[in-house]
Design goal:
Immunoglobulin-like; 5-stranded antiparallel sheet; 9% helix; 6-stranded mixed sheet; 46% strand; mainly beta; 2 domains; 238 residues
């Protein structure tokens, strides 16, 4: 084997090693939320995979898609280092208000040498958080009002939402298609906390015969946002 053949083999081997070392690392791969996803919760869970050998993985979330020269989101609200080896992240204390958001992952190879240091950025994805209102444990009960001897509907329950403005909750009481009562109360609805609701309705004497089926509709509003209608049914007992 002559010198030229040996040099050719060494060059080819070095090229293979170089390709192997550079292609082993790549940008993190995003899992969910999918690009353009409309979420059903204000507490999104992010998932991903990272090629072996990459460290210092950071989750970046921003309200606008403004990109710096290195490909990262510039106006980030959240830049969170993830635990070593983690493939998901969910902050149950960070409630996302309605709007569009953008997210990506950044990582590097952990090298302390400027010559061998490599930095990686994933593609940027967008997700949407809608206004979310959740009624729970709504209990319409016909109660006896001992003060005046007349029965009344008392409705109690819980509401939580991800809006930042005062929320009004309206109770509509129907007998068939006829509206019997319209009661609106304000509720402070912040940080996905459960807020107490209380509405009551006392009909006029003889307004509702005993055994009449009633339909109760609840709706929450906050600024331009409005919840879906929540309907309850009960039978009036006089």
């Amino acid at each position: 084997m002559n010198l030229r053949t040996i040099l050719s083999i060494l060059t080819a081997t070095a090229s293979i090693l170089l390709v192997s070392s550079t292609t082993a690392l790549a940008a993190p791969v995003l899992g969910g939320p999918a690009d353009g996803a409309r979420l059903a919760t204000p507490l999104p869970k992010f998932t991903w995979t990272v090629p072996a050998g990459e460290v210092n993985v950071r989750l970046v979330i921003a309200p606008t898609k403004v990109v710096a020269t290195d490909g990262t989101l510039r106006d980030a609200d959240i830049q969170s280092p993830t635990a070593p080896g983690a493939t998901s992240f969910q902050d149950l204390k960070e409630v996302y208000t309605p709007g569009d958001y953008f997210w990506q992952l950044n990582s590097d190879n952990g090298s302390a040498s400027q010559e061998t240091y490599q930095y990686f950025t994933s593609p940027i994805r967008r997700f949407v958080v809608p206004a979310i209102f959740q009624f729970s444990r709504l209990r319409p009960v016909v109660e006896d009002n001992a003060a005046n001897g007349m029965n009344e509907i008392a409705l109690t329950g819980k509401l939580r939402c991800n809006v930042t403005k005062i929320t009004s909750v309206t109770m509509l009481v129907y007998r068939g298609t006829k509206l019997l009562h319209n009661d609106t109360r304000e509720v402070g609805c912040y940080a996905w906390e459960q807020n107490n609701l209380f509405h009551n309705f006392q009909p006029r004497p003889g307004q509702i015969p005993n055994g009449t089926p009633l339909r109760i509709v609840m709706v929450a509003k906050s600024g331009i946002f409005r919840s879906p209608l929540t309907t309850l049914r009960l039978t009036w007992r006089s």
